């Protein structure tokens, strides 16, 4: 999990040309951050220990389109899409940590493992730095 030559994450600003006044979308590239590899490791562990009910994921829009074509809708069903503004910026950090701890407890993850994962999660979630240019 050692990251050779880590650097501070870089922020890039992408212009949303499809929106009025062309607002920007800030994107932070964490791939060279000191915590990147540990975050990937932690992601795999949490997915292993926390199986949430009613979850569904797709990798990209093509896969989503293929999956949507398989759905049989009744005439009284409606399909909607939501665009959540600043989703990740607004997630409550403490809530994420508490929910992860609760789900690991419910899934009978051992106390030592649970505490280690929560400690690592706090480190990853609470870091908030980047460099520009």
Assembly annotation? single chain
Strand content: 5-15%
Count of beta strands: 2
Mean pLDDT: 86
Helix content: 40-55%
Query: In this structure, how is the largest beta sheet organized?
Result: 2 strands, antiparallel
Strand order of the largest sheet: 1-2
Q: Count of DSSP helices?
A: 4
Task: Give the terminus-to-terminus CA distance.
Answer: 27 Å
Global outline? globular
Q: What ranges have pLDDT less than 50 throughout 5 or more consecutive residues?
A: none
The H-and-E topology, N to C, reads as EEHHHH
Query: Which structural class should the secondary elements be placed in?
Result: mainly alpha
Can you offer a commentary on this structure?
- Strands 1-2 form a two-stranded antiparallel sheet.
- Strand 1 and strand 2 form a beta hairpin.
- By secondary structure, it is mostly helical.
- The longest helix is centred in the C-terminal third of the chain and has 16 residues, at 111-126.
- Helix 1 packs across helix 4 (111-126) and helix 3 packs antiparallel against helix 4 (111-126).
- The chain contains four helices and two strands.
- The radius of gyration is 19 Å and the shape is globular.
- It has a domain at 35-126.
- The mean pLDDT is 86.
Helices, strands, pairings?
Blueprint: E1 10-15, E2 24-29, H1 36-49, H2 61-70, H3 93-106, H4 111-126
Antiparallel strand pairs: 1-2
Helix pairs in contact: 1-4, 3-4
Short description, anyone?
With 133 residues, this protein is mainly α. The protein has four helices and two strands. A hairpin with an 8-residue loop joins β1 (10-15) and β2.
